Amino acid sequence: MIRTAAVLVAAGLAVGVWAQPAPPWGASPFALTAEAVAVREAEAEVRLAFAVPARHVLYAERLRVSAPGAGDSVAALRLPEPEVKPDPAEPGSETRVYARPFESLWRFRFSDPRRAYLRVAYQGCDEAMCFMPEERLFRLDVSAGRLVEAAEAEPAPPPEQAPAAEGGWRSGLRLTSGGGYMGAEAFLAFLDQAEGRVPEGPAAGSGLGGFLRDPVAFFRAHGLWVTLLLVLFGGVLLNLTPCVLPMIPVNLAIIGAGAGDRRQGFARGGAYGAGMVLVYGGTGWLILRSGLFFGALQAAPGFNLAMALVFGVLALALFDVLVIDFARWGGGGAGGVARR
Q1: Residue 23 has pLDDT above 60, yes or no
Q2: What is the chain's Cα-based Rg?
Q3: Which residues on adjacent β-strands are paired with residue 148?
Q4: Comparing C-alpha atoms, which of 151, 139, 146, 148 is closest to residue 110?
Q5: Is the pTM above the cut of 0.70?
Q6: Is the pLDDT of residue 57 over 60?
Q7: DSSP letter, residue 332
Q8: How many CA atoms lie within 13 A of 250 on its CB side?
Q9: pLDDT tens-digit map of 115-152
Q10: Separation CA 121–CA 136 (nearest Å)
Q11: Beta strands of the chain (E only): which ranges?
């Protein structure tokens, strides 16, 4: 008995659900028919017919006919006058609506017959609910003289660019680089040098400043071994800072991306890793071979005071109280620490 009652209740619920009207997100009750009446070279007359069911309204202010193409336009030739009726969405107010089926005639002018698109947007309600706004897109087939519904408009091709001149955009381009903090005079001299108004000074390729400004010129002036020793010395100093550790995977990714194939990338990454192991391993080996030297050094008051002064100067530089630029020492400029 209980099983029979449960089956009857389930069947009644299924019939009730089946008998319910379509939800507001279901199929639209408003049917739209688009027809090309007359098609000419760059112009067409389009008839839009809307089917409005009984006890439904189509908002006149939500009816929009447009042409998405550049240079295209749409103008109404014949559009029925809407009625003024109570707004089903806002009780107590009136709005202009179409309450019965109607037809409209539009003049559609297009610039490209291959991409002549017409967009129609509208929204309507019934006595109980409003439907979602709708948008239909039609493509005018000029050769066949008819409108075909399209999913989306075909993008226009990019404008043709004029052929590049001899040498391209790099023709006459001169690249000048500089590094480190520059004062007013140094910056003006750098601008003059970039514009070619003054020749490079004799010390441009010497010292640490010359290496930072132009490593290639420094290499040509001092040879491989001096440049290599300077690079290794700077790398050791960088590896002693904790900020370089998060850059290890980034550097490996850059090295791998610049390799021609997987084998070359593995070889370059292996060389980079071997260099890191050599630096850190060599530093650790030196500390172990020194015995208690580093422990005694760290316990000395003078050493701790000197380290405190170094960190104090770095803190002032962090807050922009001091400007520390070691490149100025190599370029023949003023001191490397300047007050602001």
Answers
A1: no
A2: 39
A3: 139
A4: 139
A5: no
A6: yes
A7: T
A8: 5
A9: 889 999 999 998 888 888 999 999 998 888 888 888 77
A10: 6
A11: 31-39, 43-51, 56-59, 64-66, 73-78, 83-86, 94-98, 102-109, 117-122, 124-126, 134-141, 146-149, 322-324, 337-339
